[in-house]
Every structure is written in structure tokens, then in C-alpha cells.
Amino acid sequence: MHKVHLKKIAVIAGAGPAGLTAALELLRRSDIKPIVYEADSEVGGISKTITYRGNRMDLGGHRFFSKSDWVMRWWQEILPVAADQTPADGPLRINYQRRSRDWVPETAAPASADAVMLVRKRLSRIFYRRRYFDYPLTLNAATLNNLGILEALQIGLSYFRAQMAPRSPEHSLEDFFINRFGNRLYHTFFKDYTEKVWGVRCQEISAEWGAQRIKGLSVAKAIGHAIARPFRNLTLATQEHIETSLIDRFLYPKYGPGQMWEEVARHVTARGGDIHRSHRIVGIERGGDSVRAVDVLDISANSVQRVPCDYFVSTMPVRSLVEFLRPEDSHLLRIAEALPYRDFMTVGLLLRRMNSPAGSRNGRPGMPPDNGMPPDNWIYVQEPEVRIGRLQVFNNWSPALVADPGTIWLGLEYFCREGDDLWSMEDGRFIDFAAAELETIGLIDRRDVIDGTLVRVPKAYPAYFGAYREFDTVRAYLDRFPNLYPVGRNGMHRYNNQDHSMLAAKSAVGSILDGGHGKTDIWRINAEDDYHEEIDTPS
Ligand SMILES: Cc1cc2nc3c(=O)[nH]c(=O)nc-3n(C[C@H](O)[C@H](O)[C@H](O)COP(=O)(O)OP(=O)(O)OC[C@H]3O[C@@H](n4cnc5c(N)ncnc54)[C@H](O)[C@@H]3O)c2cc1C
Question: How far apart are CA 212 and CA 532, in angstroms?
């Protein structure tokens, strides 16, 4: 009699970078069959690209960079770099948030190909008092001119006052900022933006959180440099180092980040993996400390099916995972339910032209010089009277994101909370409101708006305050399940970039293939890294 060889099944919740990496790695390295369920109708998770009437939106602006060679190679195997993007001689220096590496593309594709990555140069500035400030902020003639000499003096004085009489003990993030930068600079550049981003007053965020995150606070570093520069005896070499580090470069798929994940999804299905879009995991069947099956809702058919599995890789929010596991310990359940998130909305706005306020440097090579489009990839909006946080200029990420090169395609980004006044606003009203905000601060004239669309991104940011303080209890509980692998950004409640989520997925596959060894090491990924997507400050 023939022995029937049944493949083992790994059910994967979510087709974002983590879920798709896990699926492809399982297929490459084992004969375990991945079955991916994705609640959304598209793959890519937060890293997907939304297409609206031929124009493509990147939710947040996703730079592709990693310290990990493995990740850099992996991406290029899927999308090679276009031949005209790299220097003919020698390596390309890629910089990302003051990290830098020399890098030689693995393969090059014809410059005219569509399935390629571009090498982009980053420019982002701060928009404050209707003027552009360098980002990171530098104490140069332009900054002093923008601030006014009186304001600059007051900032300096307030900084010295904070140094002479620091707040002690440091309880809150406000104390933390003021002790380092002075009251005036805190109120000018930190307070409003931090509160806009996280939706919590700086007095209510712990000082430890600041200490933990300060490495990632790019403007904090920049302002630190700016303040320290006149007072420290900087050598020329150090200054040179600072200048070079400001020239950031990164990789970017020609059609936005979603292109990468759509390609990966194609590889997964071509190798025999299953990806079910519009299928949400709504329940888990446990057998003691093991996941036996998941309940999957087919959203279009409105029917639920039970799917048995040998392994369960979850990239869904920890909150949902714990709820589905139904722990006996009600305290644990309460922690998971209370884990904080920050949500995100972005308005795609198509324009004929923009205004050029004072202090602007407009015109990127190859772009029409007279339509007022700023050369930035994104702009941090610090103006206190508007609620917009950042402005993306999609044309400058990749010209291929824009259907008509004569138009300007913007992303107006708002940090909010699911259900708050912004989130609940009707789409059309919100688009009008967002356009009116840009008009208020003088960047556009609403008569130049051609079209607009709105995208809501729930749980865009897992936050590190509130119930997160007790996250270790949740983690210890999840670690009890040998065949359960929580990975990814919301999957681990970790402030991940794509590469961190991918590395966690890679480790999960390694552990599955190694009989569960190294499972707890997955939590070490991105525990200390300080290069995240920028949001904390004007970043
Ligand atoms: C504004 C912003 C800017 C960013 N910039 C960068 C950047 O410059 N560079 C960078 O590398 N990263 C950046 N990131 C981070 C990047 O978006 C994430 O790290 C990445 O998408 C995380 O991948 P993931 O697979 O872990 O999670 P996600 O992308 O969140 O994917 C999880 C998927 O699971 C699905 N899901 C959830 N629950 C269920 C369920 N019950 N059943 C089925 N499916 C479910 C979701 O629909 C989603 O598709 C940025 C993020 C934001 C918000």
C-alpha cells in the first residue's frame, strides 16, 4: 500500500511584508505548504500601494534600506535595480538616517523595464511659519534668517537656562525634552508635533520612553547638533561627517512599495503557496497549548471555514491574536485589549500647481520648474494651526507614481485615533478639509485641486506607552504555544520597518525548520535598532 505523504500546513495571517516573506521562505526552504489569509483585498499590508485613477499612493513613503545584507539581496532578487540608477564605477553609497553603507547592486535590469527598483535621493524639510527649514535643522544663516535673530537668541537663552537648572527628577517626556533643548525649542519644534503624532500630551509620556526613543528622534539629534555646534569645538572632519550623512539615498520600487509585495505574492503562488485575499482570520481552535486550526471568514461570501494547521504564523495585531486564543487569565486579556495604537489617514490630492512660499527651493532636475512643486520627498508640517502632520510629494518618490507628469500628486498625512473626529469625518468633507489646510498655510490654492481621495490606515503605529508597559506578560503567554509564531509590526507590537518584519519572518521559518529552536530569539529583532521610519518628531 502506498503511504500517503501529506504536506504540513503553515497558516499565515496577513499578506504584508512579514507574512509574504514567511510564505516565500517556507516554499524555498521546505515542503511545508503556506496558506496565507489576507483580510484586505490587496497584498502588502501597510506597505501596499493604492492606485487611484492611475495615480499611485504610498501610505507613508516607504524607503527600502536595510543594514541586513540578506534583506538587501532578497529585495533585489525580486526587483533588480534599474541599470541607469547606479554609478558605472565602484559602489553606491546608500545612507539612511545617519547609517551608511557601500553597496553594489546584485543585478541590474534594463533602465526601461518596469519591474525594477530606483535609487532615490532623499530630501525632506520642515515647514514652519510659512517657511522651509532644513531637515535635520542646522544653525546656519538660512535658519537664523527664518527664525529671526531675536527668536534664535531666546532659544539659546532658554537652552542655557535649562542647562543651569534642569528639571529633576525627570518624570515626563516634556521634562526630558526641556532638559535637553530648553523650553523655547521644545515649544517651537517638539511639543505640537509629538502630541500630533502620538495623540498624548508630552507630560503624560514617560521620560524613559524619550530616552528609549531618542536615538530614533532625528530632529532631536539634529537640534542637538545645531545647538552643540557653536559651542563645541568641532573638528572639520566631524563637520564633514555630518554633511555627508545628510545625503540620504534609498531604494524604491518604480511603482511604489506595493510593487515589491505584489511580485513576492506572484512568486509565492507560482511555487505552490496559496494566498487568499479578502479572507479574515476570526478565530483560533486551541488544543491545549497548541494551535490546531483557524476560523477564516471569506468576506465576499460571508461564510466561515475552519482550516487545520501544523503551524500558525500571525502578523495580525497582538490584541486580536490574544483575544482569539481566549486566555484563562483575564488580566492578560485586559493588557492585550488595551495595547495602544496610533492610526493614520492620508489624502491623495492631485494638483495643477502649488505656491512657492518664502525660503522655498523649488525645482528638481527634470521637473517643470514653474509649477511650484517642492523638490522634497516629504515635508514635516509644523504649523500649529493645522492638523496635518506630513506632506508627501509622490512625484519625487518615483515619477512613475503619477499618471500625468504635468500634475502634482501629494499625500496629506494625518495621525489620528480610530473613531475620533478626523477618522469619523465623511470622505468628501475630509478631502476638502485637508485641501483647505494646505491653502491656510499658503502651499496651495484650492482652485488648483483636480481630484482627491482618502485612505484610512487603522493601527498604523503600535505605540509604546500605556498597557505596553506590561507587554512582557503577553509575550510570555504567547511563548507558551510551540507552533504559534507571532511576527511583524503589529504581530509583535514592535515599531518595525519592513526589513525588521522580514527578518522576524525569516527567523520564524528557521525555527519551524529547526523543531522550534530559537523561537524566543525572534523577539530580539529590532529590540534595539534605531533606524525606523520617521515619525517621532517631525519625523
Ligand atoms: C507612515 C509609515 C511610514 C513607513 N515608512 C517606512 C519606510 O520608509 N521603510 C520601511 O521599511 N518601512 C516603513 N514603514 C513600516 C512598514 O509599513 C511596516 O514595517 C510593514 O508594512 C510591516 O509589515 P508587516 O507584515 O509586519 O505588517 P503589515 O504591513 O501591517 O501587514 C499585516 C497584514 O495582516 C493583515 N491582517 C491583520 N489582521 C488580519 C486577520 N485577522 N486576518 C487576515 N489578515 C489580517 C492586514 O490586513 C495586513 O495586510 C512605514 C509605516 C508607516 C505607517
Answer: 13
Helices (H), 292-364: 318-325, 330-337
**Predicted confidence band at 103 (pLDDT cuts at 50, 70, 90)?**
confident
Residues 68, 48: Cα–Cα separation, whole Å = 22
Q: Find the range with the poorest average confidence among 152-166, 229-243, 254-268, 504-518.
A: 229-243
Q: 95 CB under 6 A from ligand 1? A: no
Secondary structure of residue 441 in the 3-state scheme: coil
What ranges make up the beta strands (E) of 47-200? 49-52, 55-58, 81-82, 92-96, 99-103, 108-109, 117-121, 124-128, 131-134
Nearest alpha carbon, ligand 1 atom 33? 14
Out of 12, 62, 122, 378, mutate this one to test ligand 1's pocket (max ligand atoms within 8 Å of CB): namely 62
Among 37, 47, 58, the mutation site with the greatest number of ligand 1 atoms within 8 A of its Cβ is 47
Tell me the CA–centroid distance for residue 47 and ligand 1, in Å: 6
Q: Is the CB of 315 under 6 A from ligand 1?
A: yes
Mean pLDDT of 403-423: 96
Return d(Cα 165, Cα 163) in angstroms, integer.
6
Assign 241 a pLDDT band (cuts: 50, 70, 90).
Answer: very low
Q: What's the gap in Å between 45 CA and the centre of ligand 1?
A: 4
